[in-house]
Design a protein that fits this description.
8-stranded parallel beta sheet, Arginase, Chain A, 296 residues
């Protein structure tokens, strides 16, 4: 695996209604992310944060949920991701809400196909035609697969940024009714919490690794609400019955063993809702497992 990492903060909270995820990058840095990676032997450079307008200063038409600014920030993220990959870095994107991934995944997939592991309690597969909330962070994955509004699907470049066959959702347990229909019709690979309960995380993680056997690169998009709220309380949209602490580490460890990790999103950390920075600290622990830290 490449040993150069660049950290890119995207403190955007415009894709959803809960305030606080804009402080996620700061919480993750405060929790020792860079030093933890450095201790694993990585060269780490922090590129700082993309400048995101403060939500209260924006005059907005609520029907489009800050669309023009989200487009602009995602295009910037796209460019930074593309540049980082060209320069030989593993880009590590710190959100912010999950809408940032419309830009990050697009940017890192310009040069070649990647496998996308979407670790999330939610499908993020809505469009403006199916959404109940209207929140764009719930449309991020569908936009990457070219479903929905062209203002989102054409960020960076036109059309899909990843192939359906190269995407896996894991940890799913909360889906809107119309979104459920769209996910099923897409043919995307999904492992719900029921699947994890029945099959076990080890079996599923190895299935995912095998699925991407012919690809050279894997991007992980880690939404901290994938975890059970007892483990990670500092998220805006918690859902009971999530991935446990050890299941999450096992997943990271098995992905790490593929030696294909090429980029990572960490999203939806909300310090305003957290307890003693617990969620950010766990996010850092999971990151170092993903980057190769082993028990022995």
């Amino acid at each position: 695996m490449n040993k150069k990492v660049c950290i890119i903060g995207i403190p955007m909270d415009l894709g959803q209604k809960h305030r606080g995820v804009s402080m996620g990058p700061g919480a993750l840095r405060y929790s020792g992310l860079a030093s933890a990676l450095h201790n694993l032997g990585y060269i780490v450079e922090d590129y700082g944060d993309i400048n995101v307008p403060i939500r209260d200063t924006i005059m907005d038409n609520k029907k489009i949920k800050f669309m023009p600014i989200i487009q602009r920030i995602c295009n910037l993220a796209y460019g930074k991701g593309e540049k980082a990959v060209k320069e030989g870095y593993i880009p590590l994107f710190l959100g912010g809400d999950h809408s940032i991934s419309i830009g990050t995944v697009g940017g890192i997939s310009v040069a070649e196909e990647v496998g996308l592991i979407w670790i999330d309690a939610h499908g993020d597969f809505n469009t403006f035609d199916t959404t109940i909330s209207g929140n764009i962070h719930g449309m991020a994955l569908s936009a990457l697969l070219n479903y929905g509004d062209k203002r989102l699907t054409n960020i960076g470049r036109k059309g899909p940024k990843v192939k359906v066959d190269n995407v896996v959702i894991i940890g799913l347990r909360k889906v809107d009714e119309e979104e459920q229909k769209l996910i099923k019709s897409s043919g995307i690979t999904v492992f719900t919490m029921k699947d994890i309960d029945e099959m076990g995380m080890s079996c599923i993680a190895h299935k995912i690794a095998s699925k991407f056997d012919k690809l050279r690169k894997i991007h992980v998009s880690l939404d901290l609400d994938c975890l059970d709220p007892v483990v990670a309380p500092g998220v805006g949209t918690p859902v009971n019955g999530g991935i446990t602490y050890r299941e999450a580490h096992l997943l990271m460890e098995i992905i790490s063993n593929t030696k294909k990790l090429s980029s990572l999103d960490i999203v939806e950390v909300n310090p305003m809702l957290d307890i003693k920075n617990q969620t950010a600290l766990i996010a850092v622990e999971l990151t170092v497992s993903l980057f190769g830290k082993a028990i022995l």
